[in-house]
Design goal:
Layout: H1 2-25, H2 30-52, H3 59-78, H4 84-108, H5 116-132, H6 141-159, H7 169-190, H8 198-211, H9 218-240
Helix pairs in contact: 1-2, 1-9, 2-3, 2-9, 3-4, 3-9, 4-6, 4-8, 5-6, 6-7, 7-8, 7-9
């Protein structure tokens, strides 16, 4: 569809400019924030166009996906703020977006029960990893566990999509890409976090995710590419399902 073609024609250069600017001048710089917002706005507007022309049978699904993308846009802007509060606020907005995705999957899936075994496996692995790093989380441990549960639920429900609707593999790919993006960011952040007080930890998160002016961050490049690809596939699903 021409709308999706336009989305990728605009998104690819915008995302590349954002990643380059992020590594050159820092993630909290106005130009970087503007480029990131522009990239996610392109995706969100594409979903809005798809929602406007969606069939009644998938209207609720399209509304929830569009809401998730808008919340992701807000989260992208908020989390770029250098103060520790920006990281927490961004985390909340992304969690709300994932809850919208979960609602969309519930609306779409005809095999919701099938999501239980994948959830137990995915969240079990997540708990094992977090337990080993528990001392580095301090007061952030509970929010991290809750956020992980939301991600695991979203990904587990996505596993049922190919068995529920035609082209459901698009949703599975979108969810996997988003989960991989979050996983790489977590590894990049927590793997080198050495301080255990909350303020230092949050400052480290903001620095690692958005302010590190290094051009040698392949994990960050991969993570961001996965993020934009996953979100764009969620927008595309409004047209294909």
């Amino acid at each position: 569809m021409w709308v999706l073609a336009v989305m990728y024609v605009l998104l690819i250069p915008s995302a590349i400019l954002f990643i380059c600017a992020k590594h050159k001048i820092g993630g909290s710089a106005p130009l970087t924030v503007a480029l990131k917002a522009a990239s996610t706005t392109i995706i969100a507007l594409t979903a809005v166009v798809g929602l406007a022309g969606s069939r009644e049978s998938i209207r609720t699904y399209a509304i929830l996906v569009t809401a998730a993308l808008v919340l992701g846009l807000v989260g992208d802007i908020v989390i770029c703020q250098p103060e520790p509060g920006g990281f927490l606020s961004g985390m909340i907005y992304f969690a709300l977006g994932h809850l919208c995705y979960i609602g969309a999957f519930f609306r779409l899936s005809t095999h919701v029960v099938w999501a239980v075994p994948p959830f137990l496996v995915i969240y079990g692995i997540f708990l094992a990893v977090v337990t080993r790093l528990a001392k580095k989380f301090v007061n952030m441990l509970v929010p991290t566990l809750l956020y992980g549960a939301v991600i695991a639920a979203m990904l587990s429900l996505a596993v049922t999509a190919p068995f529920s609707v035609s082209r459901g593999y698009i949703l599975l790919a979108a969810a996997v890409l988003f989960a991989v993006s979050d996983g790489l960011l977590a590894y990049h952040t927590f793997g080198s976090a050495g301080k255990t007080n909350e303020i230092s930890f949050l400052r480290h998160c903001c620095t690692a995710l958005h302010q590190l002016p290094s051009v040698s961050q392949p994990l960050d490049w991969i993570s961001l590419c996965c993020y934009f690809a996953g979100q764009s596939l969620f927008a595309a699903s409004v047209f294909f399902l």
